[in-house]
Structures
1.
Amino acid sequence: HWYELRACAYYGEFEKPKIIFPDIATEARFVLDRNNQYCDTTVFLIPIDDLIMLALLNSSPLLELYKILSPQVQGGFLRYKRQYVSQLPIPNATKKDKTALERLAQKCLAKRGIDCQAEEDEINAVAARLYGL
């Protein structure tokens, strides 16, 4: 229950849509929470409802950059801490690219992340172009 959490100044952010992600993972695992879930100390949140940001954060090009920013721990796991995630650059995108990323992310969400390889490949292609790769 929410009252089992330690006192914090941002309780209100749990009751809004947000992007959540685990502290330790081998790859990007950013998830959009529109169900007002409460997270504990092993999960972090970005208080926005943004499918474009979600798509970019989960893209392969950003993962490769993140591997440079984040320390790796045993087993090749990455630390997804605020101090590292906040360094990720979010590129300016055209309206066309934003629309494409949003549409593709929405398709993946509708499929609950199952059998989304085609959409993920398209997201990665758009992200690579936006990052000049």
Note: The longest strand covers residues 18-22.
2.
Amino acid sequence: MRRAADRARFWTVLLLLVGAHFVVRPRLGDPRYAPDFLLIALLFLAFNSRPGVGAAAGFVVGILSDALAPTAFGAAALATTLVGFGAAWTRALFVTDNILVTSLFVFAAAWLRDVIQVVASNQISGHALLWQLLAISPLAALSTAAAALVIRLFLRSWLDGRGS
């Protein structure tokens, strides 16, 4: 019974993150720098699952993102599939319960996802590409990592499956 309650709490947090992506994120200012709650939900799922599940969840999140911004259809699906797979695989190598390490993983995953998506979309070149990859993407990844840190601090028992 406790195991089912732990799973229900975990999925509740993931659904709240999906809702926050569409309700809270647009109200946080410039969307280029706002935390990506869908990516946080994907990473929390990938950290607690096998690489195949992480890749499948990443593909679903990417298709959802591509459907909302179809200018470079497939770029987000590719990027989030690779990040979901990589997050689950990397987490299997580095089994740690450190919140700061998890935040570092989120930062790296968010930045890597942006790099893959921007390069795969082939929509930006020259100085704009450098500006995107070296300034805007790291700031967006930092805000996503900070949001993941706060979520993890406050909802740690729900995400780890320990219950309260």
Note: DSSP finds seven helices and no strands in the chain.
3.
Amino acid sequence: MKASTLLVVPMKEPHLAKSRLRDVLDRAERARLARQLFERTLRLITRMHNEEDRPDFDIAIVTRNASIKARAEALGVGLIDEQGNGGLSGAVEAAAAVAKSEGYKRLCVLPADLAAPDPKDVRVLLSQDLGEKGIALCPSRDFGTNALLVAPPDAIRFAYGHRSFQRHCQLAEAAGITPIVLPLESLRWDIDTSNDLEELMDVDPGMFDMGRSR
């Protein structure tokens, strides 16, 4: 029986990720960090998916990168090919179109660069009752949009980018939806700046050990 929610993790080309860290990490280090963060999020949601009392969701990765595609296939999760150059908004729009066409009632989006996602917070997000039309959002620390749950998958146009949380709330309200705001702490913390990276290394020194001495 098909799940009601498709949970997607968009993953851009690792060598293009984390550009705001270019002052403290070189290109190879940024790519390595992006992959490690992606793997952490992927391991968390696949573990959740295998639990007996798991929430009702399927998993898909949105990417154009061949090695990330191979990783998704190895884990047996869904794969959505990222088309064009629409950035994160375009990737999520592609995921929404696939989710709608395959009969999912809801789309959940988790970033690939969460620092330390807590399964309890993911469960809170997935447990939201949106009815036939609704949206729940978790703002990032700098008021971007991190975790998002929307019903139906194409209920709003997606507008990721700097301080996109406010834009998504406005788009929801324009569609007649009162957004549910969920300031879930572990889902607010992504790695975009050198301060984020320093905090990650302080909390989990084994996660990523490059960049401290730069």
Note: The beta strands are 5-10, 57-63, 78-81, 106-109, 134-139, 145-151, 180-181.
4.
Amino acid sequence: MVAKDGTVIETLLEMIARYPDKEFDITAEGEIIEVSPKFIHSQIQALLAFILITHLRTEKINQYTVLTECAHDLNGWACRPDVSIDAKGEEEIPTRAPLLAVEIKSDSNSLKDLRAKASHYLAAGTAVVWLVLPDKRLLDTYQRDADDGILTVNDVLTGGAVLPGFSLQVAEIFN
């Protein structure tokens, strides 16, 4: 289902209200799709949210908060990152790009769609995007004005200038 009149967020919220026992996501092109999150997707999402919350609290980075599955409207582009770090005080549906957006590949999305989402996030002002690929045990990183990266389970994910002091062995994401 594609909402062509700029009401993707409203349509998504209506579908969530109408079908509370189902899960929905938004593709890079604004199509609302039904998803069936699997155990590994949920596990990775919860783990990354926990690790990011812990990091923000440990480093006393109080101007940001960690969100999961929160719909955003970024200059007319509707998205729903699996995990994001957003400025505190945003409205119910944030209109500012998250500092960090994380998308976890599931059976319902293609790598092409996830890469398109990463491009949209960066164009909207997101500083860093992580694409987690559970089936390949890889993590793709995207940053504005920097080279893209592919991290394996042998690598360490760092936060760079965006998340000072953050580091995580990629293997921990998949264990």
Note: The chain has four helices and twelve strands.
